[in-house]
Structures are given as structure tokens and as C-alpha cells.
Write a structure and sequence with these properties.
Radius of gyration of chain A: 24 Å
Shape of chain B: elongated
Strand content of chain A: 5-15%
Structural class of chain A: mainly alpha
Largest interface: A-B, 82 and 83 residues
Number of strands of chain A: 9
Helix content of chain B: 10-25%
Distance between the termini of chain B: 58 Å
Structural class of chain B: mainly beta
Oligomer: heterodimer
Largest sheet of chain B: 22 strands, antiparallel, barrel
Order of helices and strands of chain A: HHHEHHHHHHHEEHEEEEHHHHHHEEH
Largest sheet of chain A: 3 strands, antiparallel
Number of helices of chain A: 18
């Protein structure tokens, strides 16, 4: 009797307290996966850490000093210090958003398992495929941001990874083991391999905002490039680029009237070059409005000093460069234009967004070129680089000779010494390959400007970079510097996560000395 | 064992006395209602040890020695009677107002006060008769120890912030549970206690009590400690307020009429230190010299006052070479001189003294079999300020009928309808970067009068949001209509199954709906702002600058267009709440050998509350043209692009089930032990079956020393009664409404997308599963004592309590690998303690002249002992304060002010311990130790002092309330740049003017345009100044709450008119503050001037007539 009444009580109390829902159908799982993509933006953290940005207050840059940084956090990032903030674009949001996307994918996978176990008649394979790719992608961002670059299976077993999560969390506090970079890379590979065959583009209403098949292959191409599994890069990139890559690359010839229009054009989902588009909550675009750190002066020289088959300013960005408060205070390409979402129109309050074109055919093409080079298919690599030039309004063909003669160590604005062989005994760049690698890195830097990928290239090849900080500080990030792995967010450390090796005792001596004026040529 | 021996002793006494004794029996009933009195003591005069207590039916049997002839019958709260012995006696005890009330109503049970072991305060409606205050919850202010009532807004329908023994939760509400006639009152809208002071339109329906007619209320019972509240266990952590409404009584027939006429005084500039227009114009002149108020910046500025108007007149070509105003220094000076001497009295213009009327009639009647009470009331408030006003109608019917002698049916229905008007308002928002609390288009008359320059011409249109603005025009064209209706149907069946065994069934249905229509009419400033720059005339500069215009991203080179070419904006919001309550209880009362009193009580209850909110915003509704919508498609296009909705419909469902029981044993009413337990289930914590059930309990005891046989002999001369109580309990609450994730919470949303054609709807994880989620809990130890000295001429009640609140919902920072770094979980705890003291004395008690005094004192302190608090600077320094480990729940901090610099600009000590002007980070989370702790924002000491003098038929009542121990943030009035619209306080007279002044003043300079550009951003400095150690005051106050003089017509005068009673009363409420921190300068320490619909409690005069036939 008591038992019976308790059972009916529980039924009475089973009423959900609000409009919440549970996952019962394939459609609901598809809808859940809409939120399985991180809404954080790695650009600010990665760009400010890289050699793409300079300090306007350092003597090297001929502008008025004493510009305020937009946020205190930007000073910390630029000085490669531990970051305490948890605002937009911070390591905190990247950590939380990526793991949130992963959790969403894991909840979807759990629901799929349960539905399949209950013998549903619905086909849940496309949802499973998307969830696996989302899970792999979230971990991919995390491992590249918060760990040392992947070296090889052996060497990376010595580097701390990040927890690879495959189950929903059900307790308030859980202690996780970081594992190693190798572990993470192996699990990402497993999820990608399992996920791609299951994908079905028909299951998406807006495919470009999901891991459609093309986006998944582009992701695989970038992942295997970082993992240096070059055969796979060529395979997956081929799936993206088809037989006529030029037909799917971005048309850089269009010139727009104002930056808003270019912003919208760049992120358009009908643009064939855009494979995966991710809206993020970010104030990154505001950094360009007369703040302390900007892509300016010296940084402009890095790309404006010509290329192997062009001279001066690269023509493909010509219509799309905008600047405010004079060029020296920061130059930007409106692909990072800020878009505003009102939560209350009348009160004028809402969120700032920057839309990322996470995977593009243009970048995938450069992945393939790099892979082909290391597979010793140099002609095909050169062919891809030429295709890239054509689509980017560089009309002169690119030859091997031009590459060899342009990318020489003296050309310090575009060429940086590589330390890949120190990172891994199997990562040898032969003297013959090096100019090509430098060329590809140069093209990648132009292609992915303001997207944060330069930082990963710097990490992958052990490129040493320097930051001039304020009036008299110069800091060099050595190839094996512990600071190449961005420190785990402070709150996460406080909750017991293993730290990245301490910044106070870096593995090599820092050179901090009065700044020297860097020679231009 | 000892008890058993005592039993035996009495048994032998009984046997032994048999031979030469006589048998006496009878029944003791109340003279008021003829109900039997349980537990009345009957003793034999001259044989102190010989006596008994009455049983559940009020009956007693006693054997009396032959030589004794009289009995003494007594009962707490009743006048004792001596009567001759006899058989089948019927003794009617009259209530004795000088004694404590005999019954404690817990809303579920009526407990004999002697057997009650908890801390509770009872208030008869007359004790809390604050005339002219229609919301009865406000009448509790200062009336009961430990109950604090903060009138954060005085607008009708808004709820005061009520705390019983202070805060019990960090993120939860700490709102007491209201129980009216045994049924829990549910708010139509679950507004957190912080939001009560927000001034948002929702606060108008925050008070579920606002629909109650004060004249219908019989009494309030405030249950404070765990013993009193434990029957409500898992809902009662923050205390329970039990309201009992009037019922018909057998044998009486009565018609009553009462009317209240209330006049509210207009606020006056004399009470605030606001500059008059001459002083204000002097400041404008200085601003002009400093580069502000220039033609170029002001003529097209978003908002401007006198100067902006002047420049536009100069610019206004009227043909024939003439302009609105000649551009000569003479003409300009003449124009400004007019403004200088204008001295507009906004308070006088925006407020009025109109009379608020409240009429109530009631009829009550009863026979042996049936009893009835019915009432109607009408409140008509034409509004203290413009564009406000309330009409409220209530009806109440309460009938009970004895179907059989042992079966009574009670049916109760009550309803109220309210129509209210309020100035149009939008919700307030905090700009986290600058730390400014903003409310756009605010037209609250009170804050307008306080904040608007007295140089403005009230008949003139100035500019706001690029459109013409005049407050009177705007109040007429931008307002909220509110319609609230509220009904309750309740039936209760009471069945006396056997002697002592009683069953009770109760069911109630409640329905409340409130419709809120915000009318923004065609010509209102708020509507015109959406077309400024295009309509009524094109202005390219404004068109470019007006943020409310829309630029189509899909059109190359598109110009900003209006989304509101015609009409206004109509916003409809409906909140409704439906509740069903069911309850069944059983009680068994018995007394063994007349000495062992046992009460058993148990039952089950369920409640189901469905809340619904529907809203809709109609653009382009043409108020002026017959109400036809004319909308532009761009409204929807823009809405889609900006991801904003134009309608919404959301539901919440609350389900509760509880089983409870209580056992009381009392030995002869002297020693009482009580055990109470409740097992509560709720759906609020999600589907998880482990989280949803919670047992709560209480154990308590009381010792009625005055029932001891030795008491009278030993202490009788001084003490008339003495009771000691102690309880230890566990009670709980469900925690803040937003934490319900015992299973993963998945909600739907529309993710933002850059363009309208690629949107899709999705689901997201709102909260990860927390399988450990549970209720917030509280252990409480309460020790109390009641004393009556000198035949109860002096009554003292004192309580001390110690509380440990644990499993409180707090933020915890995790590794975040599950997807959330910061989680809300049961991780926080706090300790609190307090002392409560009530002293009631009858200082003079003559036939003609009486003087009584009531003094109430309560202190409540709390400190958070465990919280991983990670609040940032802005939350710690603004408004109501914030929770931090080692500090009270609502503690307020300040940025340390470090003096003015040599330019008169404020400087501060920042997080890096440097003295700075602008290098402050309001978002800082880590280094918070540089902030100075100021104190809690909740008062720690509250209470009152009431004196009543009566002489013949006149009664004078002087009632003072006080509240101490908290701090108040002064209004944020300082800015890096001021407009010619804002008024300034007189503090500005002492501002920094010339170098060297920084030695003598802390009032910063009016910054020049040059300074504003040099310090980037200077607004940080001035905002920081608003939140600095300079801008804090003590919240202590002593308020003359009420002075009233009443006159009851003597019986012989009115008997001829067939009137049973007639009285008149004149009362002044909220007259003045006897004490407040001087720094407040007229700012009410209780009131949060947050704009919107918030207004302070007015000073008012009320004339009341009560008549009974």
C-alpha cells in the first residue's frame, strides 16, 4: 500500500518543472548537435601570442606611446604570462566552451546509444557521425591551445595532454587525468575515422554550420597535417578539393564598399570556399580600434614586402583592408568584423560576435601542398601553390626557382628558422624542402591571418619568436619554451587540474634586455 | 519513571479521598464562541494540590473534599473564575486581553499555547492596523521581533522585502512562506528578493498579498524557529507567516463598515538637497567654459536640455531672415536668464495630493448550526504621481455549516480584481564594463523629479534619444495598464470521528492572472526615437547616429531606415498561475488520568502550481488611427537577424508532496515534549528520485514553570507566568529557482546567426546533471522564554537562536572538463544567530487613563563560512552587495578613495595597490583585497517602540520603527560629463574649483572637455567615485512610522442610533526620520531609487471611520 502510494507520488512529481526537453528522437538529437560547436574564439589568444601582433607602445613601432590595451588580459597574453581573466576570448572561455561542445556531443552519443538499444527504427548514423566529429574537434582545439605541439608518437608521450572525455559528467566535482598529447591525438584520430563514414549531409538544414562531409574532410586534413600523417592529408584534402580545386576556392577579386559588406561576404554560407562556419562570442574585432596591440607597422611589413612571385602589398587583400585612426594604429581585414546580437533592442544591449570561417578550401589546399612536399611529390605541391596564387589574384606563375631564391634566411620578415628536427627526430626538413616549407608557411600566414592558425604553425615547426613589450622589454619564445602550451585557466587549476610546467622556471633562459631596433630588411 | 510515580501518587490520592468526597463535573467553554476549552485547569480552592485539566471536549471530572465549596477555573488568555462546586457545571471563560493568546495557529493545526514549544509571534489585525497602507504585508513592519520589512518600493502591488530572522540562503530568496487560511499563497511570478527593488514592471505583481483586504484579516501568526515551522519542513527555512481571516461566530450578527481616506503629501525639494535653477545655471556656465555644451556637439546630441534647445532655435530658420532665436550674445543670455529664474518644481507638477479611498463592508452572522462571514471592499487610488493609480475590489465569503454534530463543512471563496496604471518602463540592465545601471526611456516621475534640471520649462519639448521629449506628454503617451484578478475557492471538511479523534480534509483552487499592457503611443518619445533622423523631418546627421534605425545588411550601400514608420509599440504580457492544493490530516488528542496530555497529528498534502507567461510585442500599432496595425516587414527581418523574438510563451510547473506528523506529550501542561517530522518531495530538482525527497524534523520542549504547584507560592507576587522553551530542528528549502539540474537540463534555443536566411533552432545543455543536488538546509537551536510580571502588567518574550545553514547553493569552480567550469551546487554554508526581545508593559492602567508600551528588538547576524566566491569588483561594490566567504550574505564593498588630485579629479587605490585615476578594472576577479568592506546591506538590528495612551474614549498611538547596522550606497550622481538635462545635488557647491581645493574638499571637479580626453576613459574615475568609500552612508534610521489619534463614541451616545460601535481615527504615517545618517541628504535609506515603477513610501494622512451595527 505504502509502496503503491509512493509510486504514484513519484509519477506526480515526474512532471518536468519547465519547458525543458529530453532526447527522444533523431530530430531532437540533431537539434542538440546545433550546440555541439564551441562559441569561443581562439583568434585573440592565438594571434596575440604569435608573431602576427606587435605592441604599439614598444619603441620599435613609430606611433605615439601610451595606448591602453582593450583589456588587461591582452597585456598578459602578449607577455606570455598566465592569464587570470575569464572574459570573452580568454583561455577560460575556450576551455569551457570546447568542453561544453564535447559534453553536448557526449550527451547526443549517449542518447543515440540508448535509442538504438531500445530498438528505434530511426537511422541515427548521421547524428552519431556529427557528434563524433564535434567531440574530436573540441579536443583538437584544446590540445593545440593548452599543450605542446604534437611531435611524434614517442616524444609526445612525454607532454601533458588534456582530458579526453567520452562520457557525460554527473557529479559536481570530478578529478580528471590529463593523459598525454599522444593519447589525445590517437583518440581524435579514432573519432574522426569512426565519424566521417557515418555523415549524411541530408540531415542538416544549414549544412555549413555543421560538420558536413566536406568540412569533416577538411578537419581531417588539418588534423593529419599536424599529426604528420601526410598520406591521409592528401586523401582527405582530395575529397574536399576535387579535380578542379580552382572552382571551389574563394574569389578574391570582389571589392566591397564598406567593411560590413565584406564581413558578410567573407562569411557567406553560399561561398564555396567556406566549409564550416562558426559564430563566436568575441570582442576580438575591437582590438583594432586604436588599442595597444595591433597588426601594424612592423607586422604590416611582414606581409607587405612582397612574395616570390609578386612585389609589395599582396593584391588579394587590396579591397579588403580597412584601418582606423591611421594605419599605424592597427590594420585589419574585415573578415573579423564585429556583428551584434541584441538581447534587448530598445535598451541596446546584447552580445558581440565574430564569425569564424573555421575550415576553408583555400586553407585545405595549403595543407595538401605541405603534405605533398613531405611525400616528396614536390611538383604536385608546387601545382597547389600555383592554384592558390591564381585564386588570390597573383597573376604571375610561381616557379621552383622563385621559391628557392626568395625564401632565403636573410629575408627575416617572412622566413624564420625551423626547429622541427629538435622537436622530433623524425621531423626532418631537408635543405631542399625548407624554402618550400617557408613558402607554404608564408602563404598560410597570409591565408589564415586573424584566425589564429599562425600560432599553431609557430608551435609545429618550433619557430622562435620575439615580443617587444613596452619601452624596454624584449622577450623571446624559444622553440622548447614551456609557454608554448598556454597555461590551463586559473579556476581549473584551482580545482586541481595538473599545471603546465611553471612559467617562473622556463626551460631556457629568457633574454630580457633593452630593446634593440629591429632592422627592416 | 518519575512521571509514572507521579501518576501513581495521584491515583492513590484519588482512591484515598473517596470516602469523604463529593463528585464534581462540568464543561469549560469560551464565552466568545462557545467552543470547548481544552486543557483548562480546574483546582479546588484551598487545596492547591488538588485539580485537573479539561479534556478535548472541555469536560472535567473532579472529586472534591466535602469541606471545600469552590473551584478555580483558569486558562491562559482567559480571566480566571471562581465558582461554587456542583454537577454538570457550564463555565464560560471570558477572554482576557491582558493575557497571552491561547492558541497558536500554524495553518494546519490549532495548538494550545501551553503545549506550543516554538518561537512564534501573534499579531491581531488591530495590532497591525496601519491605515492607508492597502498591502497588509507592509503592516508587519516593526510589529514582531525578528521580522524585518524593508519597503524597497512603495508602489502598490510591489512587495516589501520581508525577512524572518534574516537571510537563510545565498542565491535563494529567503522569502517567508505565506499561508492564508491553511493554504500556501503562491506568487504569480517567482521574483527573487533582489529583483523586488529593480523597479521593473514585473514587480507590480510581486506581492501575492496585495489582493487581500486588510479588514478581512483576523490575525497574523509569524512562525520563526524550527519548532514552529517544522510542520512545513522543507519549505519553511525562511519562516512562515500564517494569516487567518475572519469567520462568522455563533450567536452574533453584525454589520460593519469602515472607510479610510488617505492624503499623501507631495515630496518637496526642501527635503532633498537639489540645486535650484540659479545654482544649476551657474554650473552650466562653468561647463560651457570648460568646453562642454558646445553648439556643434549639442545641436545634434541624442539628449539635451536648455542649451540644446537654444542652439536648435538659433538654427531654426523661419523665413524673412529671422531665426527662432537671434544668434547674438544678448539674445542667448536673455534666453538663458529665463531658464536661470525658472526654478521648476517638478515634484509639485508631477505629484498630487489626491485622496485615496478605501471602503469595506462586512456582514457576519451565526447560529448553532451555521456561521457566515462576507465582505466587499473597494480601494480607489487616483494616484500619487501622474500616470499612476489603482482600483482594487475584493470579495470574501466564508461559511461553515455543521452537517452533523460531528461533521462541519467550511467553504471559503475570495476574489480580487485590480486595475492599475503605471508609467511605461523597460527592464533595467547593468552595463558591466562601466558599471552603470541603465534603464532606457525611463519616465518614473519620482526619479525624473529628482534627476531633472530645474532650469527646464515644463511646457517645452527638449530632446531625448534624438526625439522631442516632454515628461507630461510622455506620461500620457507611454504607460502600462495592469489588470490583475485573483480567485480562490476552498473547502474544508472537519469530522470528529471519535472522542479526541478528528479528521480534516482541505482542498483549494487558486487562479491568478495579470495582464500587463505597455502602451507606447504614436507620438511618444519612445516611438518617435525609432524614426528620429527620418521622420518627422530628415536629418542626415541624426540618421547616421541614431542607433535605433535599421540598416539592411543585404542591400549594398543601404541607408538607415526606420522599422516604425507609423504608430507606436504595443507590448502585452500575461502572467497566470493556477494552483491546486489538497490536504488530509488526522489528529488525536487525549489525556490520560487527566495529567498526561498527548496530541498526535499527521497528514499528507499535495500542491500543483502551473505558471505561465505569454508576451507579445506589436510594432506599428496606430493608437491615433483606430488601432490598426501598420508594421514594416523590416521589423521581422531585423528581429531575425538580431535573434530577437516578438512573442514568447513559457511555462513552469511546481509539484509538491509531503507527509508529516507531529507528536506532543505534556505532563499536566508543565512539561511538554514535541517531535515533528516531514517528508517532502518536489519536482523542482528534476526527475532524479534520490534528490527529490527530503526528511526534515524537529525536537523541542517547553517548561511552563507557572503551572508548577510551587510557583504561585514562591513567585506569585512578582511573576504571573514563566515559560521556557528549547528546540532543535532541521528545516529546508528548495534553493534558488534556477537550480534544478538533478538530471541534465536541455532547453531549446535559437542560436545567433549572422543573417536571417541561415537560422535554425536547436537544443542546448543548460545545466549538466548534478546527481548530488539536494535541498538547502538549516539546523537551528532556539532557546526562548516568556515571562509575565505583576499579573501580566509586564510581558517579556525573549528568544536566542543559533543557525547553521548548510548545503546552500553556491558557486563552485570545477575543472570544467564536463562542460561547465562554474557550477551551482550545494557547496556553501553560513552561520547566523540572533536575539529577539519583546516587552509589553501596561504602565498606567486606570479606568480613565491607560498607557501601554511595546518595545521590540531583534538582532540577526550572519556570516558565510564556506563559499568558493568569485565575484568581481562590480558586483561587490554596487547596489545590494554580494556574497563572500567570511562576510555577511549581502555585503557591500567600496573602492578606496585616495583624495582628489591637483586637477580635482578623484583618485583611488587600485588592485595593484597603486594610486590611480582610471586604471581600475571593474571586472577584476582575483585581487579583491584592495576593496574596503563597508558592511551588510541588510539591517542587523530592527525593531520598534510603540506607546498607546488612552483617556476615556480617546486613544493616541505613537509608533516608532528603527533599523540599524547596514550600509547604503549613495545615489550614483557623479559623471565625467554632465548634460544640460540633469539636476545636481548641492554637494556640488563644495566641489573642487581651483588648485588647492583638494586639501579641503572631496567633491570632484566638473571635468573639462580637455580633461575628459586626457584621461582615457575618465568615466571610469567618476563611476569609481560613485562606488568609493566617499559614497557610502550608514543605513541606520529611526522612523516616526505612525502617529494616530482615535476616538470611540461612548455606547450611550450611539445606542440611540442603533449602532453597536463607532470610532474615528486620524493617522499620520511615515512622517519623518528621527535619525538618519547626514550623508544621505534626503535619500530614504529603505528605498531603492531604481526608476521604473518604483516610488518611495509617501508621507500620508489617513482619516478612518469604523462603524458596526
Amino acid at each position: 500500500m505504502v509502496l503503491l502510494s509512493f509510486m504514484s507520488c513519484n509519477n506526480f512529481l515526474d512532471k518536468l518543472p519547465d519547458n525543458r526537453t529530453s532526447l527522444q528522437t533523431a530530430d531532437q538529437i540533431s537539434k542538440l548537435l546545433v550546440s555541439a560547436y564551441p562559441t569561443s574564439n581562439i583568434s585573440l589568444l592565438a594571434e596575440l601570442s604569435s608573431d602576427n601582433f606587435v605592441d604599439n607602445n614598444s619603441p620599435d613601432v613609430s606611433v605615439a606611446n601610451n595606448l591602453a590595451s582593450l583589456e588587461r588580459m591582452h597585456d598578459e597574453i602578449y607577455a606570455w604570462e598566465e592569464i587570470t581573466s575569464s572574459e570573452d576570448d580568454s583561455p577560460f572561455t575556450i576551455w569551457e566552451e570546447c568542453y561544453n561542445a564535447i559534453a553536448t556531443a557526449n550527451h547526443a552519443l549517449k542518447a543515440i546509444d540508448e535509442l538504438e538499444a531500445s530498438g528505434t527504427s530511426e537511422n541515427l548514423a548521421p547524428q552519431r557521425g556529427e557528434a563524433l566529429l564535434c567531440r574530436a574537434y573540441g579536443h583538437f582545439i584544446l590540445v593545440n591551445m593548452f599543450c605542446q605541439a604534437y611531435k611524434d608518437a614517442e616524444a609526445s608521450r612525454l607532454d601533458l595532454g588534456i582530458p579526453y572525455v567520452t562520457e557525460p559528467e554527473t557529479l559536481v566535482t570530478v578529478q580528471y587525468d590529463r593523459g598525454t598529447v599522444t593519447d589525445v591525438y590517437e583518440k581524435i584520430a579514432a573519432d574522426i575515422e569512426a565519424g566521417i563514414p557515418l555523415l549524411g549531409d541530408d540531415s542538416y538544414s544549414i549544412p555549413k554550420y555543421h560538420f558536413n562531409t566536406q568540412a569533416a574532410h577538411a578537419f581531417a586534413a588539418r588534423f593529419y597535417l599536424y599529426a604528420r600523417n601526410y598520406e591521409k592529408v592528401v586523401y582527405h584534402a582530395g575529397k574536399v578539393l576535387g579535380n578542379n580545386p580552382l572552382s571551389v576556392l574563394r574569389d578574391w577579386t570582389t571589392i566591397y564598399d564598406n567593411s560590413d559588406e565584406e564581413t558578410y561576404a567573407y562569411i557567406k554560407e553560399t561561398e564555396s570556399a567556406n566549409l564550416l562556419i562558426l559564430p563566436t562570442n568575441s570582442v576580438f574585432a575591437r582590438i583594432f580600434y586604436k588599442t595597444r596591440y595591433a597588426f601594424n607597422g612592423k607586422a604590416v611589413r611582414m606581409i607587405s614586402r612582397g612574395g616570390p612571385n609578386w612585389s609589395g602589398w599582396p593584391s588579394f587583400y587590396s579591397g579588403g583592408w580597412w584601418w582606423t585612426y591611421g594605419q599605424e594604429f592597427g590594420l585589419f581585414c574585415s573578415k573579423v568584423g564585429e556583428l551584434f546580437e541584441y538581447t534587448d533592442k530598445i535598451a541596446g544591449i546584447g552580445y558581440t560576435h565574430v564569425v569564424r570561417t573555421e575550415f576553408t578550401t583555400d586553407e585545405t589546399l595549403l595543407c595538401r601542398a605541405e603534405a605533398l612536399l613531405f611525400l616528396n611529390r614536390t611538383d604536385e605541391a608546387l601545382n597547389d601553390l600555383n592554384t592558390w596564387c591564381v585564386s588570390h589574384k597573383i597573376n604571375k606563375p610561381l616557379t621552383e626557382q622563385q621559391i628557392l631564391s626568395f625564401y632565403t634566411p636573410e629575408r627575416i620578415n617572412v622566413v624564420s628558422p625551423l626547429n622541427s628536427s629538435k622537436m622530433s627526430s623524425s621531423f626532418i626538413v631537408t635543405p631542399g624542402q625548407e624554402p618550400f616549407v617557408q613558402c607554404i608557411l608564408h602563404f598560410r600566414r597570409l591565408e589564415t591571418l586573424f584566425e589564429g592558425l599562425r600560432w599553431f604553425d609557430v608551435k609545429r615547426y618550433g619557430i622562435e619568436i620575439e615580443h617587444l613589450i613596452g619601452a624596454n622589454k624584449r622577450d623571446v619564445l624559444r622553440w622548447d619554451d614551456s609557454r608554448r602550451a598556454i597555461q590551463i585557466p586559473q579556476d581549473v587549476l584551482a580545482a586541481g587540474m595538473t599545471r603546465n610546467p611553471s612559467y617562473s622556471a622556463p626551460s631556457t633562459n629568457l633574454t630580457i634586455q633593452p630593446a634593440i631596433r629591429n632592422s627592416d630588411e | 519513571m518519575k512521571n509514572f510515580l507521579t501518576c501513581l501518587f495521584f491515583f492513590f490520592l484519588y482512591i484515598g479521598g473517596y470516602a469523604q468526597s463529593k463528585m464534581v463535573n462540568g464543561v469549560v467553554v469560551s464565552a466568545d464562541d462557545g467552543q470547548p476549552i481544552i486543557g483548562a485547569s480546574v483546582t479546588v480552592v484551598g487545596e492547591a494540590a488538588m485539580g485537573t485539566v479539561t479534556d478535548i471536549d472541555g469536560k472535567f471530572k473532579l472529586t472534591v473534599p466535602q469541606n471545600r465549596n469552590s473551584l478555580l477555573v483558569s486558562y491562559i488568555g482567559m480571566k480566571q473564575q471562581q465558582i461554587a462546586v456542583g454537577t454538570n457545571l457550564r463555565i464560560e471563560l471570558k477572554s482576557d486581553d491582558q493575557q497571552l493568546d491561547e492558541i497558536v495557529v500554524t495553518g494546519m493545526q490549532r495548538v494550545d499555547k501551553r503545549l506550543f514549544t516554538g518561537a512564534a509571534s501573534k499579531l491581531n489585525a488591530d495590532d497591525a492596523a496601519l491605515s492607508g497602507v492597502a498591502d497588509v504585508s507592509r503592516r508587519l513592519e516593526g510589529r514582531a521581533a525578528g521580522v524585518s520589512v524593508q519597503n524597497v518600493s512603495g508602489t502598490f502591488g510591489t512587495a516589501p522585502k520581508i525577512r524572518v530572522r534574516g537571510a537563510t540562503s545565498i542565491y535563494g530568496n529567503s522569502k517567508p512562506l505565506w499561508v492564508v487560511d491553511g493554504v500556501v499563497m503562491e506568487d504569480a511570478l517567482d521574483i527573487s528578493s533582489d529583483d523586488l527593488s529593480s523597479g521593473n514592471a514585473e514587480t507590480l505583481i510581486a506581492s501575492s498579498i496585495a489582493g487581500l483586504n486588510a479588514d478581512d484579516i483576523e490575525s497574523f501568526q509569524i512562525l520563526k524557529d524550527g519548532s514552529a515551522t517544522s510542520i512545513y519542513g522543507a519549505r519553511a527555512m525562511a519562516g512562515v507567516i500564517v494569516v487567518t481571516t475572519k469567520k462568522g461566530k455563533a450567536g452574533t450578527s453584525r454589520f460593519s463598515y469602515s472607510t479610510e481616506l488617505t492624503m499623501r503629501l507631495k515630496p518637496s525639494y526642501a527635503n532633498f538637497n537639489i540645486m535650484n535653477s540659479q545654482e544649476q545655471m551657474g554650473i552650466y556656465k562653468e561647463m560651457e567654459e570648460k568646453g562642454w555644451l558646445e553648439f556643434t556637439s549639442l545641436a545634434n546630441a541624442s539628449s539635451s536640455g536648455v542649451y540644446g534647445k537654444m542652439y536648435r532655435l538659433i538654427d531654426d530658420y523661419q523665413g524673412n531672415g529671422s531665426f527662432g532665436l537671434e544668434n547674438t550674445p544678448e539674445a542667448r543670455n536673455a534666453y538663458l536668464r529665463q531658464a536661470e529664474f525658472r526654478n521648476t518644481d517638478w515634484f509639485d507638477l508631477l505629484f498630487n495630493n489626491s485622496i485615496m479611498q478605501n471602503h469595506a463592508i462586512s456582514i457576519s452572522s451565526g447560529t448553532e448550526k451555521a456561521r457566515f462571514y462576507g465582505s466587499l471592499s473597494i480601494m480607489r487610488d487616483p494616484g500619487w504621481s501622474l500616470s499612476s493609480g489603482v482600483n482594487r475590489y475584493t470579495a470574501n465569503a466564508n461559511a461553515s455549516y455543521d452537517i452533523f454534530k460531528n461533521l462541519t463543512l467550511n467553504i471559503l471563496s475570495s476574489g480580487s480584481y485590480r486595475k492599475q496604471k503605471a508609467p511605461g518602463t523597460l527592464s533595467q540592465e547593468v552595463d558591466v564594463v562601466s558599471g552603470e545601471v541603465k534603464r532606457d526611456f525611463d519616465i518614473n516621475p519620482y526619479s525624473f523629479a529628482l534627476n531633472t534640471s530645474r532650469t527646464l520649462d515644463p511646457d517645452e519639448y527638449y530632446r531625448r534619444n534624438y526625439a522631442d521629449f516632454n515628461i507630461f506628454h510622455e506620461l500620457q503617451n507611454n504607460y502600462i495598464d495592469l489588470n490583475v484578478s485573483d480567485v480562490k475557492f476552498q473547502a474544508e471538511l472537519n469530522w470528529k470521528i471519535l472522542k479526541g479523534l478528528e479528521a480534516n480534509f482541505l482542498s483549494a483552487i487558486k487562479y491568478q492572472t495579470s495582464t500587463q499592457e505597455h502602451h507606447v503611443k504614436d507620438r511618444s518619445n519612445q516611438a518617435e526615437a525609432y524614426r528620429a533622423g527620418i521622420l518627422p523631418e530628415e536629418d542626415a546627421t541624426i540618421r547616421e547616429a541614431n542607433p535605433l534605425l535599421y540598416t539592411d545588411p543585404d542591400v549594398d550601400g543601404a541607408l538607415p531606415e526606420t522599422i516604425l514608420p507609423e504608430g507606436g509599440i504595443y507590448t502585452f504580457t500575461n502572467h497566470s498561475m493556477k494552483g491546486v492544493d489538497l490536504r488530509a490530516t488526522m489528529s488525536y488528542n487525549t489525556s490520560v488520568n487527566d495529567m498526561h496530555i498527548v496530541n498526535l497529528f499527521g497528514g499528507a498534502e499535495s500542491s500543483a502550481i502551473d505558471r505561465n507567461k505569454v508576451w507579445f510585442r506589436g510594432w506599428g500599432y496606430q493608437y491615433d488611427n483606430g488601432g490598426i496595425p501598420f508594421y514594416d516587414y523590416t521589423v521581422f527581418k531585423q528581429g531575425k537577424e538580431e535573434n530577437s523574438d516578438y512573442y514568447g510563451n513559457s511555462w513552469t510547473y511546481a509539484r509538491n508532496l509531503a507527509f508529516f506528523s507531529s507528536m506532543t506529550y505534556s505532563y499536566a501542561g508543565r512539561y511538554t515534549v514535541n517531535l515533528t517530522g516531514r517528508y517532502e518531495g518536489s519536482n523542482k530538482l528534476g526527475k532524479s528520485r534520490s534528490a527529490r525527497w527530503l526528511p526534515t524534523w524537529n525536537i523541542s520542549g517547553a517548561w511552563n514553570a507557572h503551572e508548577e504547584l510551587w510557583f504561585d507560592d514562591l513567585l506569585g507576587n512578582v511573576l504571573s507566568n514563566a515559560t521556557f522553551k528549547a528546540s532543535y530542528s532541521l528545516t529546508a528549502d528548495r534553493g534558488p529557482a534556477f537550480v534544478t539540474n538533478s538530471e541534465v537540463v536541455i532547453l531549446s534555443y535559437n542560436p545567433w546567426r549572422p543573417t536571417a536566411d541561415i537560422t535554425e533552432s536547436g537544443l542546448y545543455i543548460d545545466g549538466l546533471e548534478n546527481s548530488e543536488l539536494t535541498y538547502e538546509k538549516k539546523n537551528e537551536l532556539n532557546v526562548g522564554a516568556d515571562f509575565g510580571f505583576l499579573k501580566n502588567r509586564i510581558n517579556v518574550t525573549a528568544d536566542v537562536y543559533f543557525r547553521q545553514n548548510f548545503d546552500l547553493i553556491g558557486l563552485i569552480y570545477t575543472q570544467g572538463v564536463g562542460g561547465e567550469i562554474a557550477k551551482y551546487a550545494n557547496v556553501a554554508s553560513m552561520n547566523s544567530n540572533g536575539v529577539e526581545l519583546s516587552i509589553a508593559t501596561k504602565n498606567i492602567d486606570n479606568k480613565k487613563f491607560k498607557w501601554s508600551t511595546d518595545f521590540i528588538f531583534a538582532s540577526a547576524k550572519n556570516v558565510i563560512t564556506d563559499l568558493d566566491s568569485r565575484s568581481n569588483v562590480i558586483t561587490l561594490i554596487s547596489g545590494e552587495g554580494y556574497a563572500r566567504q567570511g562576510y555577511p550574505v549581502r555585503s557591500l564593498f567600496s573602492i578606496p578613495f585616495a583624495g582628489l588630485n591637483e586637477e580635482g579629479i578623484p583618485t583611488f587605490v587600485n588592485q595593484d595597490n597603486e594610486t590611480t585615476v582610471t586604471n581600475l578594472d571593474f571586472q577584476e576577479y582575483e585581487n579583491l583585497d584592495f576593496l574596503k568592506y563597508e558592511g551588510p546591506t541588510d539591517p542587523t538590528i530592527t525593531g520598534s517602540l510603540g506607546n498607546t495612551f488612552s483617556w476615556n474614549s480617546f486613544t493616541l498611538n505613537v509608533f516608532i520603527t528603527y533599523s540599524l547596522g547596514n550600509v547604503v550606497r549613495l545615489d550614483p550622481i557623479f559623471k565625467s560629463s554632465y548634460s544640460d538635462l540633469t539636476s545636481m545635488p548641492k554637494e556640488f557647491k563644495n566641489r573642487w574649483v581651483i588648485p588647492g581645493d583638494e586639501e579641503v574638499t572631496n567633491i570632484p571637479v566638473i571635468a573639462s572637455l580637455r580633461q575628459d580626453r586626457n584621461y582615457d576613459p575618465l568615466s571610469y574615475a567618476y563611476n569609481a567615485y560613485n562606488y568609493s568609500t566617499e559614497r557610502i552612508a550608514k543605513g541606520d534610521f529611526v522612523r516616526m512610522k505612525e502617529i494616530s489619534l482615535s476616538y470611540s463614541f461612548p455606547k450611550k451616545l450611539i445606542d440611540n442610533l442603533k449602532i453597536a460601535n463607532l470610532s474615528m481615527k486620524l493617522q499620520a504615517t511615515n512622517l519623518f526620520l528621527l535619525y538618519a545618517d547626514k550623508k544621505l541628504n534626503g535619500q530614504d535609506p529603505e528605498f531603492f531609487n531604481s526608476g521604473g515603477v518604483a516610488t518611495p513610501m509617501p508621507k500620508q494622512l489617513t482619516f478612518t471611520i469604523n462603524m458596526g451595527i
